[in-house]
Write a structure and sequence with these properties.
Elements: H1 13-27, H2 29-32, H3 45-57, H4 65-75, H5 78-106, H6 112-122, H7 127-136, H8 142-151, H9 156-180
Length: 181
């Protein structure tokens, strides 16, 4: 069986350096920019998507996205709100993942035992379910899971799928609870 060759850009350190800078800018953007979240209310379900994307893609964002999901569930179709919120937060979590992945690609970690341990934890046969469970639980530290998964070179598609499953399960509950209030 032949392995596919990676495109040349994916083998370039410059590509990963640019990716690192862009993901760093997004992760730390609340330090430099003020977000006016009240303006997102007028966007409806798209506002729920944007709110969840912003709250998941930044490290220092004070408001959890699942609150917007509950409020959106009270105002709009709860299933669509949960879908939009899950997609937004999943794409937002990819920023932390790309930060970890690109930092691993542009630097060569000196502590190989730490990286080997991290690789074993993330790539364990239950690593996928661990990420699903941690994505389901509302906690401000999930960004670290994305960064660690990126550092461990976890496959991006598997990471996004596991985050989406966990977030959708949580958001569907939150949106329907919001719709009953």
């Amino acid at each position: 069986m032949r392995r596919k060759n990676k495109p040349a850009i994916l083998q370039s350190k410059l590509f990963y350096a640019i990716l690192f800078l862009l993901s760093s800018l997004l992760l730390f953007s609340p330090i430099f920019f003020k977000f006016d979240l009240n303006s997102l209310k007028s966007f409806g379900i798209a506002g729920v998507f944007l709110f969840n994307f912003i709250s998941s893609s930044t490290l220092f964002f004070p408001a959890p996205g699942f609150l917007a999901t509950g409020i959106g569930g009270a105002l709009f179709n709860p299933f669509l709100v949960a879908l939009a919120a899950s997609l937004g937060s999943t794409l937002g979590e990819s920023v932390g993942f790309l930060f970890g992945h690109s930092s691993r690609k542009i630097s060569h970690p000196k502590d190989h035992t730490f990286m080997e341990s991290l690789y074993k934890i993330i790539h364990h046969k239950h690593g996928f379910l661990l990420i699903v469970a941690l994505a389901f639980i509302p906690n401000p530290f999930f960004d670290a899971i994305g960064i660690l998964a990126g550092l461990a070179l976890y496959p991006l598609r598997r990471f996004l799928l596991s985050v989406f499953i966990g977030r959708f399960a949580r958001d569907i509950i939150v949106a329907y609870v919001g719709s009953t209030l």
